[in-house]
């Protein structure tokens, strides 16, 4: 009996040794066939899995939320009882503003002149004009100009209901935001006709009311020389100049700008755009 058990143990040990040798030989053969053995892959550290880089097209499909800090809503300006008429601050600084456009003929000529002298201006656009000339709003944005709200159809706001005034302003702001890249922060009432509703609604839409100090009256087509004289005689620190780039034949306005702009610069004036911190 003991002899049989001893033989059985020897048989089992021999089988285990044979299996071990075969396994080692098989592993050696596999290693030789596939090249040198590699260390095991490192175990990833605990935490959320890393994202693989997105393809360029995939970025456009991601929602804006969750990627960086959310954009803060613009602070609502105060409800004023009268429009801003001039800038405050130091130095010989003036603002050039143009109303009623953009016009496909006159506005590009004005933009060309401004670009030549590296000057920025403010364009108070009418929504119905902006809607047909969105490329010009895009150009204004690219060249550093400010675009303001001049209502949709240039009505006399003091004769409209509050609902109609809001519609005139909102529609224009929507077009400006789409073409220019951001909603307007300034508005100007057509004909300079303001009332409590215009101030309140402008504030609700995040806009400040900006009027003017010097009116060139170029819409009356008084002659290029007269427009030039009015600008140069009214020039002073903080002055806001009103001209037009649409609403009729504005060729005199275009020619006048070409004359008075270099003269203002030679006189030491800095032509800029409105900034809320300066007003």
Instruction: Please tell me what the overall shape is.
Output: globular
Quaternary structure state of the chains depicted: single chain
**So how many helices?**
9
Query: How far apart are the first and last residues' alpha carbons, in Å?
Result: 113 Å
Structural class category: alpha/beta
Radius of gyration: 36 Å
Low-confidence stretches: 1-73
Mean pLDDT: 81
Helix content: 40-55%
Report the biggest beta sheet as strand number plus sense, adding barrel if it closes.
6 strands, parallel
Q: What fraction strand?
A: 5-15%
Taken in chain order, the helices and strands follow as HHEHEHHEHEHEEHEHE
Number of beta strands: 8
Tell me about this structure:
With 279 residues, the protein is an alpha/beta fold. 42% of the residues lie in helices and 10% in strands. The strands form two sheets. Strands 1, 2, 3, 6, 7 and 8 form a six-stranded parallel beta sheet that branches. It has a two-stranded parallel ribbon with strand order 4-5. 31% of the residues are buried. Mean pLDDT is 81; it is low at 1-73.
């Amino acid at each position: 009996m003991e002899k049989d058990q001893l033989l059985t143990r020897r048989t089992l040990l021999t089988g285990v040794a044979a299996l071990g040798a075969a396994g080692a030989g098989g592993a050696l053969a596999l290693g030789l066939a596939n090249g040198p053995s590699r260390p095991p892959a490192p175990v990833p550290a605990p935490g959320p899995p890393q994202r693989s880089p997105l393809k360029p097209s995939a970025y456009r499909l991601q929602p804006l939320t969750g990627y960086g800090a959310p954009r803060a809503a613009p602070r609502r300006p105060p409800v004023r009882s009268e429009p801003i008429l001039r800038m405050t601050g130091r130095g010989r600084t003036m603002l050039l503003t143009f109303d009623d456009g953009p016009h496909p003929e006159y506005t590009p000529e004005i933009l060309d002149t401004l670009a030549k002298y590296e000057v920025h201006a403010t364009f108070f656009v009418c929504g119905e004009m902006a809607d047909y000339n969105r490329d010009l709003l895009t150009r204004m944005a690219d060249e550093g100009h400010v675009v303001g709200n001049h209502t949709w159809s240039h009505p006399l706001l003091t004769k409209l209901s509050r609902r109609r005034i809001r519609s005139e302003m909102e529609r224009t702001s929507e077009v400006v935001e789409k073409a220019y890249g951001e909603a307007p922060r300034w508005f100007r009432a057509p004909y300079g006709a303001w009332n409590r509703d215009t101030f309140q609604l402008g504030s609700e839409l995040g806009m400040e009311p900006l009027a003017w100090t010097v009116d060139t009256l170029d819409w009356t087509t008084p002659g290029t020389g007269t427009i030039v004289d009015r600008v140069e005689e009214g020039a002073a620190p903080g002055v806001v100049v009103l001209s037009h780039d649409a609403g009729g034949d504005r060729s005199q306005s275009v020619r006048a700008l070409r004359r008075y702009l270099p003269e203002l610069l030679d006189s030491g004036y800095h032509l800029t755009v409105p900034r809320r911190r300066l007003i």
